[in-house]
Amino acid sequence: MVETTPATRPANPRFSSGPCAKPPTFSLDKLADAALGRSHRAAIGKSKLKNAIERTREILGVPADYKIGIVPASDTGAYEMAMWSLLGERPVEMLAWESFGSGWVTDAMKQLKLDAKVTTAEYGQIVDFANVNFDHDVCFTWNGTTSGVRVPSKDSIPAERAGLTLCDATSAAFAMDLPWDRLDATTFSWQKVLGGEAAHGVLILSPRAVARLESYTPAWPLPKIFRLTKGGKLIDGIFEGATINTPSMLCVEDYLFALDWAESVGGLKGLIARADANADAITAFVDATPWLDFLAEDPATRSNTSVCLKFNDSRITDGATFAKAVAKRLETEGVAYDIGAYRDAPPGLRVWCGATVETADIEALLPWITWAFEAEIAAQSQAA
Ligand SMILES: Cc1ncc(COP(=O)(O)O)c(C=O)c1O
Q: Region Disordered: which residues (predicted)?
């Protein structure tokens, strides 16, 4: 017997981990000032791009001597650009604890053919940073979007180091305090925590990363969309809004709107508080629910954005089928879209808790998870 459904539905059922929910105040007419049909190199286009860079710096607290560029191909483009442009000068360590980090390992080993040291951890765990040599270049993902495991503390990375750190921060930026003095090349996409549009990446470079770019030329060819230097000098324009190729001015307007919204909720502090409140609501639910656990084993590593959950009940016969069916029920009811675990991750649910999600919607979702779980247990025993 399927239980009666909970009384309240989330006002917004969008809990996807990317593209993530738009800011609550979003509507398409908010983009009416977009510089559409104008050159991105005209004064109006350039000033919007520059504005996007400057306000990213302000909200994220990026130091004045770091460079911020808007680059092609979303976070993947930004991170690949960093790897292809910076690596190869010294030994490399690749760290991975879920599928996106593993993807960077594959590229470093199979495409760049680097003889890198690879350290991995299972889904739910994290690597031991004490065993990493930060005099080497180190590549890692701050928040593993597919396992909900994040770097526990800035102290995992030493402030003094000879190597560069290349940090994929796409599901961390605007939700976590990123320690800029420990990060040399940091990337994210607009489609994540601020609920912007995909296809544009942001690359943030420390002075030491810039020094590497200006003193070292990789052995491999670099396609035009990866090239950050010309004649051994950084192409400064890229970091002032003169993008490498044509950006979508509609996406730029959308990002500027998202930055306005970020400021309206108190900037980075307000964004982090919103994500924390969402994740705390889930923690209270998990603590009170015997059949549900976090995938992240150590509470210090638990994400406040991509919260990954696993079912833990001896009545479940096939974990993957069960979790998919629960997610399907929630989607069919229109109470939660896209919350099945990532395709390569262990079976379960993944609920996005970034700042654009309202805590009231997370709270409204939780009884529905219980409803769907019980309905699925009942359906499974009927089928048996
Ligand atoms: C940690 C991480 N890296 C990279 C990506 C790829 O991002 P994009 O599709 O914006 O390039 C994602 C997307 O979810 C991600 O979560």
A: 1-22
* 313/277 same-domain check: yes
> What is residue 170's predicted lDDT score, i.e. its pLDDT?
98
Residue indicated by tokens 């030493």? 158
Asked, for residue 60, whether it belongs to a domain, the answer is yes
Model confidence over 56-75: pLDDT tens digits? 999 999 999 999 999 999 99
Domain interval for residue 353: 266-383
Mutating to test ligand 1, I would choose from 189, 191, 192, 343 the residue with most ligand atoms within 8 A of its C-beta, which is 189
The average confidence (pLDDT) of the chain is: 97
Is there a single domain that holds both residue 212 and residue 77? yes
Alpha helices (H) in the chain, listed in sequence order? 43-60, 74-86, 99-106, 207-215, 249-264, 267-287, 319-332, 359-383
Residue 3: the pLDDT is: 65
CATH number at residue 43: 3.40.640.10
Nearest one of 316, 202, 192 to 262, comparing CA atoms: 192
Same domain, 305 and 174: no
Residues 285 and 240 in one domain: no
Please report the atom of ligand 1 found closest to the CA of residue 189.
Answer: 10
Measured torsion, CA atoms of residues 267, 272, 277, 283, in degrees rounded to the nearest 10 = 170
pTM: 0.98
Instruction: Provide the pLDDT confidence category of residue 384 given band limits of 50, 70 and 90.
Output: confident
- Other Cβ atoms less than 10 A from the Cβ of 260: the count is 13
Q: What letters, b where the CB count within 10 A reaches 16 and e where it falls short, cover 207-225?
A: eebbebbeeeebeeeeeee
Same domain, 306 and 253: no
> At 282, is the pLDDT very low, low, confident or very high (cuts 50, 70, 90)?
very high
| Amino acid (one-letter) located at 15 | F
